[in-house]
């Protein structure tokens, strides 16, 4: 949907153009947050992977956006799939071994 909206951007007028501008503003805000943010569709397609998520994971957004969560390599696939399969909305102090270092993440 995002790519289709980008294609139609120059053709939008009135209320549709205002809503598109608001969508773009919110998307840019999420992209620039200093914390990792990713967004998934119900079928686990990765819809968004912000700059902080790129830095945290070492995975470029252009590589994962549009792909399914199960195509990510571990430890990220295991961590994120485990989180979405739980009823909890937040998980605190999740242990992650990465490059010989221990990281603690809140999801």
Automatic annotation (TrEMBL):
Pfam families xref list: PAS
SMART domains found in the cross-reference section: PAS
Protein name stated in the entry: PAS domain-containing protein
Organism: Vibrio cholerae
Domain PAS: 22-66
Alphabetized SUPFAM superfamilies for the sequence: PYP-like sensor domain (PAS domain) (SSF55785)
Top-level taxon of origin: Bacteria
GO biological process assignments: regulation of DNA-templated transcription
Record-linked NCBIfam families: sensory_box (TIGR00229)
